[in-house]
Amino acid sequence: MEDLRLVVDLVLALGAAFVGGMVAQRLGQPVLLGYILAGVLIGPNTPGLVADRERVELLANLGVALLMFALGVEFSFNELRRVRRVALLAGGIQIPLTVALGMAVGWAIGWPLPAALLLGGAFAISSSIVALKLLLGRGEGDSPQARVALGLGIVQDLSLVPMLALVPLLAGDAENVGLAVARSLGTAALALVVVSVVGTRLVPKVFYAVARTGSRELFLLSVVLIALGTALASHEAGLSFALGAFLAGLVVSESEFDSQVLAEVIPLRDIFATLFFVAVGMLLEPRFVLDNVGIVLAAIAALVIGKLLITGGAFLAAGVDHRTAALGALLLAQMGEFSFVLAGVGLADGVIDGEQYGLVLAVAVGSILLAPLLLAAAPRLVDLAERLPGVAAQERGQAGPAAADGAPLVGHVVLCGYGRVGAELGEALERRGVPYAVIEINPAVVRELRARGVPAFYGDAAAEALLTAVAVERAETLAIATPDLVTAHAAVRLARRLNPGIHVIARATAGGEVGPLAEAGADEVVQPEFEAGLEFARQVLRWHDVDAGEVTAAIGRRRTAFYGSDDAASRRGSVSGTLLPVVVPTAGGDDAVPAGR
């Protein structure tokens, strides 16, 4: 049985995560909370079934590497360079101020100076893994807040290198500390150069050679080998395991194989990344928390509130708009997995004792547990950020460009987001000669639209300055096609204030977003995947000779149940079922059958 112990721990961790995730989802909470609490229940500090923490952490490291590798594949060097300035400026402000915050908390609870400094270093580092998981769960992996949060997260991860080199100084071993710091930084810089230069030359050739074999198994093996091998090399060079995997993904993103690589690695990523959150929960000691509940709660409050204000202010100082700054700060308002690493080294070197180490872990886990709840409150916090002194006035002064043809926009459609959904609407409006203006976060799309003569504006639809630039106060319709709930929610509220009579249709990425968008003032809310499922059902039922009236009634009932309003459901039914008939090719070839028949 001992030979199968790793399998037993894996089954126990995944089973607990499954149950915890199901319970959390049934309670309307993010599944991430369920994963962490599942880890608490199977951890060594609670009675009942116990998984081996070291084995689960080993498997969790695989998930961290695959998660960061997949993120790197979805990114590119060009996108990273675009946020470089913001990341460096914000990091230069956020890291030292957060270290000072942690020192103040340490002093307040009676820690000596070396231990307080180490606590400050732990406070400064956020969890890119937690932020990424939250973003992916909301469909915002390519949003502006994702880019700035990831950029700052990378700077924070790199700051771990000099922090670790300085731990001996805090422990009283000051011999050759300067040399150790210089050596660590030099090694890190060399590792980054080697990964970027060698990787961009070697990896595409490896993938090309493997792809020519036509074997999916060999291709998947090469993907995993490159991800984990680069992560391991990064770790051995003194950088973080996760950063190495992210760099490997960036290299892959520059090749023509990026889409296939992403398709292969996502299932592995989702399984093993779950174990990271289980492993985090296993670290928590409930008895320690109960015995020191006042100090733990006070430290968590100081960390979360202080880091929100410091990180948000750092983003604003770096030139980020208030909404993106607020969301980026919300994503990073916790302690990360590398804080555990720093605290562990401090414990081994005698900088902190076991009780102080327990407090660091308790605060870190508590802040991670709060992260999904903070993000759920994002619309209100973004509104609060807009009211900060100077923020609204500054962004009102950032007026957008005039319309492409110089003509005033009246009775037009304001289209927010020009992805797959928005582009279809845009083409339909052009065919009917309906004037429209676009707000889009992708500068390449904005450039292309302007070249076609479409009034297009780069930026965030939740910014009042941009809505004013597209003359939303004179528009007939606001169509929000972006999958970002916070953007959609804020844009609806702003548009309603600027133009109370405007018609608003918004996109929801999940059923739980329908209510908040309707409450914000949307006349129509559409969930694209749900509507696609209904269209599949309608077409298949008609092919199987189910009466057309019965099919229409069944789909109407399903819409009513999903959207929760008879009137809204009937209006949506008229749009998806009558005005926009779908044409489906038949098996015979070029003949087509209108889906409405």
UniProtKB/TrEMBL annotation:
Gene Ontology MF term list: antiporter activity
Family matches, as Gene3D superfamilies: 1.20.1530.20, NAD(P)-binding Rossmann-like Domain (3.40.50.720)
Subcellular localization(s) per the UniProt record: Membrane
Entry keyword Secreted: no
Membrane-crossing residue ranges in chain numbering: 6-24, 31-50, 56-75, 87-109, 115-136, 148-171, 177-198, 218-246, 266-284, 296-318, 324-345, 357-378
InterPro entries in the cross-refs: Cation/H_exchanger_TM, Na+/solute_symporter_sf, NAD(P)-bd_dom_sf, RCK_N
Domain RCK N-terminal: 410-527
Predominant subcellular localization, coarse grouping: membrane
Membrane-related topology note: Multi-pass membrane protein
Record key words, sorted: Membrane, Transmembrane, Transmembrane helix, Transport
Example of a GO biological process term: potassium ion transport
GO-annotated cellular components: membrane
Entry similarity comment: Belongs to the monovalent cation:proton antiporter 2 (CPA2) transporter (TC 2.A.37) family.
Protein name: Inner membrane protein, KefB/KefC family
Organism: uncultured Thermomicrobiales bacterium
